[in-house]
Amino acid sequence: SRASVAFVGLGNMGTPMAERLVAAGHEVIGFDLAEAARERLQRAGGRTAATAAEAAAQADLVILMLPNSGVVEAVTIGDGGVLAAVRPGTLFIDMSSSEPLRTRALAEAVAAGGARLIDAPVSGGVKGAVAGTLTIMVGGAEADLAEARGVLEVLGKPALVGPVGAGHALKAINNLMSAAHLWVTSEAMLTGIAFGLDPSVMLDAINTSSGRSGSTQLKWPNFIVGESYDSGFGLGLMLKDMRIATGLAESLGVPHTLSDRAVEHWSTADAELGQGADHTEVAKWLRQQGRA
Ligand code: NAD
């Protein structure tokens, strides 16, 4: 059935996701601070509002696809926030990669305000957002997922992974692994290249061998070999996710020594590559550190 969806955060991920919902026949009312992002959604047939609260006021569902927990909290329960504007019982779906413990607290604040919140972060990148093939890791009540399922299935494959916050925990854990893989894969690939091996010969062999990962199957072939570095996932966002995961390990008393080294390396690259760098540029940065 046709849902009325407020979509807040029309960036690299939010734009193609909102466009899919429009194409599937849902009523989408979008908001982003960036005017260019709002205009892009209008051209795709979506409506836009002047504020997030205005977008959410008439919606059944409020999807948030924002940078981090700080922004999600400000938009939801900050001054002029969305919570005060929605109809009672409105379902919030935080699809951003936020911090699980802050998500739990936010869900309580949202419940106290008479609404509901589930977390539903995604994996699959901009390509997956465009194709509607995202992995969607849902934390929350089964009944809430049932209500959101029709809309989420336009974007990818939703699966309930636990109570509120569980999706955000799992997403951060996935990205810590993904980032550590990309770093070691890049050091290893550059070693092979310096030895004289052809990168595509290496990737073909590795992709049917035990060294394979998303970094060898997707990131190196699509964004690094051809030096386009245009995955659409910012380096700073990846670093945020790594810190969420190592923070969880620390607070739960789980060892995280190699993970901490990965965070250090990624922070150095982040500082040197500067704002706006794509996360795949760590491979370019590593190449520049070498003698070759
Ligand atoms: P992005 O930086 O491209 O988009 C974020 C958008 O939020 C921007 O358009 C920005 O203008 C908007 N925004 C910021 N503050 C706002 C506010 N107060 N009100 C309204 N809009 C505001 O980021 P993205 O790549 O789309 O990622 C969004 C989230 O999804 C992040 O948490 C990220 O970690 C996660 N994620 C990204 C990818 C990817 O491949 N890009 C994949 C999976 C998950």
TrEMBL record:
<comment type="similarity">
    <text>Belongs to the HIBADH-related family.</text>
</comment>
<dbReference type="Pfam" id="PF14833">
    <property type="entry name" value="NAD_binding_11"/>
</dbReference>
<feature type="domain" description="3-hydroxyisobutyrate dehydrogenase-like NAD-binding">
    <location>
        <begin position="165"/>
        <end position="286"/>
    </location>
</feature>
<keyword id="KW-0560">Oxidoreductase</keyword>
<dbReference type="InterPro" id="IPR006115">
    <property type="entry name" value="6PGDH_NADP-bd"/>
</dbReference>
<dbReference type="InterPro" id="IPR013328">
    <property type="entry name" value="6PGD_dom2"/>
</dbReference>
<dbReference type="InterPro" id="IPR002204">
    <property type="entry name" value="3-OH-isobutyrate_DH-rel_CS"/>
</dbReference>
<protein>
    <submittedName>
        <fullName>NAD(P)-dependent oxidoreductase</fullName>
    </submittedName>
</protein>
<dbReference type="InterPro" id="IPR029154">
    <property type="entry name" value="HIBADH-like_NADP-bd"/>
</dbReference>
<keyword id="KW-0520">NAD</keyword>
<dbReference type="InterPro" id="IPR008927">
    <property type="entry name" value="6-PGluconate_DH-like_C_sf"/>
</dbReference>
<dbReference type="InterPro" id="IPR036291">
    <property type="entry name" value="NAD(P)-bd_dom_sf"/>
</dbReference>
<feature type="domain" description="6-phosphogluconate dehydrogenase NADP-binding">
    <location>
        <begin position="5"/>
        <end position="157"/>
    </location>
</feature>
<dbReference type="Pfam" id="PF03446">
    <property type="entry name" value="NAD_binding_2"/>
</dbReference>
<dbReference type="InterPro" id="IPR015815">
    <property type="entry name" value="HIBADH-related"/>
</dbReference>
